[in-house]
Every structure is written in C-alpha cells, then in structure tokens.
Design brief:
single chain, 158 residues, alpha+beta, four-stranded mixed β-sheet, two-stranded antiparallel ribbon
C-alpha cells in the first residue's frame, strides 16, 4: 500500500506552512505541562484559556478544520465523529468569546446542545454542517425558524 506523503507536485503556500508550524509549536509548548496540571487548572493556548482536557481536542479541531479549509479531496464529512465534535466544540468556545456574536441555541442531529447568550435563535443541523457554518458561513442543510444570523467566520486557514 502506498505511503501518504507531504511531498508532491504542489507546494504548500508559505503562509500555510508558517501558520501550521506556529500552531504546532503552541500546542507542543502547552502540552508539555499537561502531566503536571490538575484538571481544574487552565493553560494559555494561543490566547485562549483551556483546561487540560480541552487542549488535545482543540488541536484536533484545528487540524480537522484546517484540512477541510485547504480545499483538498478530504472534507469534514470524512472526519471521525469525535473529531467533528471536537471541531464544533472549539468553534462554540470561539463564538462565546467573540465580540458581536449572536445569541444562539445550537442543537445537533446527534443530540448535542449549546446555548450562546440568552434567548437565542434555535439552529439545528448535523455536526459537519454546523462546523461549516460556524467556521466559514456555509449553512449547508442547517435549519432555523428565521434567517440565519451572520456569525464571525475564520480565515480559510486557521
């Protein structure tokens, strides 16, 4: 069976490589302290305060979202269900601290539920469609009682 390789005829944009490397260094620095941390402590990770249990999920979600963002043949629909949940939780965490984020109640077809703000619009869909909407504003097959609000979106490479 052929081995997957990062080498190929297409070269990655230098900005993509630099940002990926920075994310990797930030994760490595933060993860180096996990074995000495209590579960109720937090670690600074790229400007976010995360518990030790959130750090690995955050990194997984960055990888999943970023690879979908690259526009390759791989999409979030092919992600492991736990990885799609990690990505969605990361985007929810980001939305909660974003300025001008709309009030929402987000419910997934898989049974997850998050409340952002008070008296929010109920938005439903599968995890993958919700990730696409929260990351880049692509609603897919998301449903709500009224028009979907504009949410702060990520750059194509996070």
């Amino acid at each position: 069976m052929p081995q997957a390789s990062c080498r190929g005829t297409r070269r990655l944009d230098p900005v993509v490589r630099i940002r990926f490397h920075r994310c990797h260094l930030a994760f490595t620095a933060a993860a180096g302290h996990l074995s000495r941390m209590r579960a109720d402590e937090t670690v600074d990770y790229r400007g976010r305060r995360l518990s030790p249990g959130e750090l690995v999920g955050q990194r997984i979600s960055e990888i999943v979202i970023s690879h979908d963002s690259l526009g390759t043949a791989w999409t979030i629909a092919e992600a492991d269900p736990d990885s799609a949940l990690d990505a969605l939780e990361t985007l929810i965490r980001r939305l909660r601290i974003a300025e001008a984020a709309p009030s929402l109640i987000i419910e997934t077809a898989e049974g997850d539920r998050w409340e952002i703000g008070e008296d929010g619009l109920v938005v439903t869909g599968d995890r993958e469609d919700l990730v696409q909407w929260l990351a880049w504003g692509h609603p897919g097959e998301i449903e709500s009682a009224s028009e979907l609000p504009v949410v702060p979106t990520l750059p194509r490479w996070t």
